[in-house]
Amino acid sequence: MKRRVLALMMATAMVFSSGVIYAYAEESTESETEAEESTEEESDTEEESDTEEETAELPVEPEFEPNADYDIYTVVEYTIEDLGEDMVVTVCTYEDYSEFDVLCNFFGDDQDCVMTYDGEEFELVSDKTGFLNSEVPAIVELAFEQDIWLPIGEDGGTELPVEPEFEPNADYDIYTVVEYTIEDLGEDMVVTVCTYEDYSEFDVLCNFFGDDQDCVMTYDGEEFELVSDKTGFLNSEVPAIVELAFEQDIWLPIGEDGGTELPVEPEFEPNADYDIYTVVEYTIEDLGEDMVVTVCTYEDYSEFDVLCNFFGDDQDCVMTYDGEEFELVSDKTGFLNSEVPAIVELALEQDIWVTIE
Question: What gap in Å lies between CA 117 and CA 326, rounded to an integer?
Answer without folding.
Answer: 43
